Request: fold
Amino acid sequence: QITLKESGPTLVKPTQTLTLTCTFSGFSLSTSVVGVGWIRQSPGKALEWLALISWNDNKRYSPSLKNRLNITKDTSKNQVVLTMTNMDPVDTATYYCAHSLRDAYVSWYFDLWGRGTLVTVSS
Amino acid sequence: SYELTQPPSVSVSPGQTARITCSGDALPMKYAYWYQQKSGQAPVLVIYEDTKRPSGIPERFSGSTSGTMATLTISGAQVEDEGDYYCYSTDSSNNQRVFGGGTKLTVL
Reply:
């Protein structure tokens, strides 16, 4: 059974760096064609994809946020860490991590999600 | 930037068929995925690779595509199907992973 859980601060100040950890079980990030992605959702808004890391350490970022994001994995700990720099109140959102698979078009999708963690950006 | 367009809302009576559309220029070349999100919960994958249904998803959920449009159909919608539905896909170059704006389904 695959499970994922997000952890990190619930409140950050503007200009600070946010660090979120996704701890998962039921799969290994050393397994071929498996990845973990991060998606966020501002209150009352749509889902927004942020970043993805695959089993071979290939990293992909949202073009609009790539300058602020960094995603890494620790296969031995079954964890994926996302950092986002220069946080702003508009970054207030629920942040989800999700197990990711690759389809025949070499596109990644998210089949199982964590419950999410709400991060508020405020001074 | 690449966009997927969904209607903001769809409303049906219980037992009717609900159809939610998603349009995007790359959909003829890329798969569409559909997620259901109930209030206060994480999204759940209900359709993958245009037409496939994950285990545990009721048979009343189905997906189809035609040209630049993907459609999620809920045959015999039930009150418990209420929630927000998001389509998801990628652009033709696999650089952007995009969710649609979401469709609020009301069954009453």
Remarks:
- The first strand of chain A starts at residue 3 and ends at 7.
- Chain A has a mean pLDDT of 96.
